[in-house]
Amino acid sequence: MSEHLRTALDLAASGIPPLPLRVGKVPFGNCPACTRNACDGRPNMKTPGPCTCPRPCHGWAAATTDPNVINSPTWRQAWRDAAAVAYHPGGAGLTVVDLDNAEAIAWARASLPATRTVPTTRGEHWLYQGAMQSANAVRPGVDIKSTMAYARWLGPGAGTITTLPEAVHALAVKEPSPVRPATVTVPALTGGGVCPHRTPTYLERGIAMAEQRISEARNAVHAAVYRTFLAVLSTHGRCGCLTDTHIARLFTAAQAKGESPRHCTDAWTNARTTLGV
To answer: Which of 3, 103, 148, 151 is most exposed, with the fewest beta carbons within 10 Å of its own?
Structure first.
């Protein structure tokens, strides 16, 4: 049994889901069956899915505490090829504050409650009990690794673990990005026709449904946003009913799913071009 496999089984037995890392401290790439999300399992390694692939090829989402999986023939080969062991902190109910340099450590000692610490190559990992949203570069030299992320296993660390404080939660809260809606110029109806939307309620309902469709997108968010914009414009784009306020609502829904203002503008422009509005 390889040293990495033995470490992984010990972690799993204590409720910490491990995964193997290859050289460069990165997860194993997707196997041929899962390349380009062919398995329709864990798109972009962001959400767990139904994929039954036996290989550890889905990033943090491959982490597991099941010893039968960890010790399976496919995973045993991965542990032999691995350069290091990682784990999914959020899956163990933990949050890692990754302090990448001496300045970051000094800030943490002055700003955060003391907790269990693990030395790293350049700094320290501070471990707290409790899971939260992961976030990179919350301040210079500081990352937060918890849900949908992995951290390298460097040993159990020293000190008593502390409950996740509000000060760490606050680090991941960012000011909302300013919404930059596209300016829509739509042609008048041929022959001076009237707007087909008999009441404002019809348009309001359409925008609300579009917001919901974007908010409920579980994968392929780019495509979902574009299709939603296309649907809104095909119904409401030629009569002059759409206002900047309506467009801002759609952009806000898209940005809440992780889309950037530029992606929103591009999707809106592409939808207009497709429809010729």
So the answer is: 3
User: Residue 196 to residues 89, 139, 200, 208, 235: CA-CA distances in angstroms?
Assistant: 54, 51, 11, 19, 10
**pLDDT value for 45:** 47
Parallel, antiparallel or unpaired: strands 18-22 and 26-27:
antiparallel
Distance between CA atoms of 189 and 128, rounded to whole angstroms? 61
Amino acid identity of 205?
R
Q: Please, which pLDDT band fits residue 162 given cuts at 50, 70 and 90? A: very high
Residue 184 sits at φ, ψ, to 5 deg, of: -105, 120
Q: Kindly report, residue by residue over 14-37, the tens digit of the pLDDT.
A: 999 999 999 888 888 888 888 766
230 touches 210 (CB < 8 A) = no
Residue 87 phi/psi, 5-degree rounding, is -150, 160
